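Predict the 3D structure for this chain.
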Amino acid sequence: MTVTDIHHSRRLPAPSAMLELIKPITWFPPMWAFLCGAISSGVSPSGRWIEIVLGVALAGPIVCGMSQAANDWCDRHVDAINEPNRPIPSGRIPGSWGFWIAVAMTVLSLFVGSFLGTWGFIATIIGVICAWAYSAEPIRLKRSGWWGPGLVGLCYEGLPWFTGAAVLAAGLPTTEVIIVAILYALGAHGIMTLNDFKALEGDRETGVKSLPVTLGPERAAYVACIGMAIPQAIVIGLLWFWGMPIYALAVTGLLIGQIFAMRVLLRDPKGRAPWYNAVGVTMFVSGMMVAAFALRSLGAVG
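Done. Predicted structure below.
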């Protein structure tokens, strides 16, 4: 270790750099999914606001923030190629601070999760394990274009949805809730694949076999679109089967909107991926909330 390294390891990172490390912009999807889960439980939030606030904070700033810190620490060499201005490769998070921030937030995640009941705590443990398995050696599932996005989709959509429903229901969610949560988690695989386009060059150089690297941008975009559309189509079919035609039609309309956006995406997958993440993904998550209210109504009918 050089004198400069020792100096950097002792220097405290600025609060702004630590906030950038845990990426507030990424917190929305799991927080939204947690609220979808809470609504889908069919249980009144009256008297449960503390648990709801804790759950939203756990899903977003704490667990998602921890996963971002862990990923940036484990990806610091890749980011030096793709995005050298990020907090760790730029030196704004010096020494091993990135690692210890991720570890501290892991402990905080488990502590807060312990207040959300048995199933909420179990989901938190799974989320923490998945976050480290995604980024850290020797597992580093992000090297796989299939397992990596699937794991992120599970942690961003499926687990928070399950947790929100479990916290409100004070127990295991219904089968219908679990099925819909799984389907939207599967659909998020496509969203995560599109997110990999921004790191195409660095992934190729460092051996990360994302789908844009292994299949090429055009084929990867087709796979992503199909992966997003099929689970939503299944949700629509289930809502019809469960006697919720109005909600099924609403999700259908949102899926049709996504299909039109997908046609634009496929003309220039790499260039249009950020645009689709703003337009198409907004319709995807809107469909999640529609499905959540459908499940709430289904519970009331049942």
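The two ends are 65 Å apart (CA to CA).
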